Amino acid sequence: MTSQAAQADAAAQHDGHPFDYYRRDGMALRPAPPRVRFDDIWTPARQNILEGWIDFQTKPRETEPVRKVIDHMWQGDELMDAVVEQFREMGMAEGRKLLDQALDHGIESVPDAPAELVALFEPLDRTPEWLDWELWERGRVLWNNASLAGGLGMLVGDVFGTFVGDDVAYAVGETGRLVQDNLRRSLETGAWFRAVTLKGALERFAEPFKDTVRVRLMHSQVRAGLRRRWGDDPDAPAAAGASGPRGAFAAHGDPISSAWMMVAATTFALQPLLVDHAHGRTCTWADLDAVTMYWNYIAHVFGVADDIIPRDARAAVEIMDWGVAHAGGPSPWTDVQARAAFDRPGGSGLITRALLTPMLGLMTYYSGERLTRALIGGTRMRDVDLRLWTALGKAFVWGNVGFRRVADVLPGAARRAEARTTAPVYRSHEFMERLAARRGLSGTPFDHHNTTAGVAQGGAIPAPPPLSRCPVPHEPTSCAGRRPAQEHARTNRADLRPEPLARGKEDSR
Known about the structure:
The chain is mostly helical. It has 23 helices and no strands. The chain has helices at residues 3-12, 43-50, 64-71, 78-90, 92-105, 115-124, 133-144, 148-163, 166-175, 177-180, 182-196, 207-230, 248-252, 258-278, 285-301, 313-325, 334-342, 349-367, 369-376, 387-408, 413-419, 429-438, 485-489. Helix 8 (148-163) packs antiparallel against helix 14 and helix 14 (258-278) runs antiparallel to helix 15. The N and C termini lie far apart (62 Å). The model is unreliable at 1-5, 236-245 and 468-509 (pLDDT under 50).
């Protein structure tokens, strides 16, 4: 079958958008969704860590690995998406029982397992041919051995991607979890990241492996819910925001796509070591190959399509560079989520500034002031002077990395690196667990999107179960005054629309 015939056959299997299919060998590569665009706002974050490794270009080239990733912006996780559809029909609670049974005891222990679940576990129960466990373990050790400053650089990139970048901001904004249930989402995110740094984390019956599959399920639940909310009308106008979701697939591609999952995996893998290298704690391409292998297998378990997983660090760098440069934003959801994070109710505005300004200065050092201003432009922090704190952030990063450089040449450095159980940046997770426990939140079952996949066509994503309440009223249409918590708790998700404040104008808070 020719490339054009295979593509036409795939498109004919549905009545939606002509790019809404899972790619097969021989098909032509799809172009980027219209939303995806280069933005110079991300250039400092890229240039700071990539100069010296590649022939850095302000607008990165589309190499062959990048073109394959672009194609997969139109598709999600074929195997898990089919499982979610089956679970939606049989009942999500019953489906999760089957998934947990298979995770704990193997798919063969599930009587009359649905064909979709059997297909999901076939690649999970075997390792891909390209996986080198020895190199994977070396990558895990190297990643854990990055400095605190290197790990913070990765986290800062993740924050900007979540709040400012279009792909994640739209998905997170539509579900409302970052605003309505931030503590639980943060607890689960931190718990998962910490767990996958442990030795043996991705052995088949290890708990972090199982939790990775549960997070994968959650991603597909969100994807299914957003697709049902957005609709599949290829002739509908591209959405200008969540207030007009019809046609959003045509503008964005698939939410939480296989492509953006791979871009995220490359940034997580490479940034800690690249930050260290940029500040004098050097690494090699062989080191980057190792951390790429470490995160490649994580991406595989997460359901990223095998044909876009890079086989070496050079391809991973190309994917990361292009993906960050085309992250876009700020999205219509940026101000909604940033106000929830920075404009907390109660307390003094001076205290809030005193606590947050050093963090914003550090973020500015890593990624540039334009990106920071895009993040806080709709909040009460928008006019904060960051110059001093950016300089202090620079001093911290150089000092922390310099300290680790000295430690690297002291006796026992290799033994300490092997013995390190987790990355320094995740040692604070125990504090978050204690904070969550005081709020009545314990455990990380990754189950708070069980109802998301069942949203009605064009309907709103359901609110999370009431384990924790959002403290911030967040209809962006009005910021005058604050409603009582009881009234806020009754807010229907359909009423929440990202119409941010005009930038540079004071609100009444």
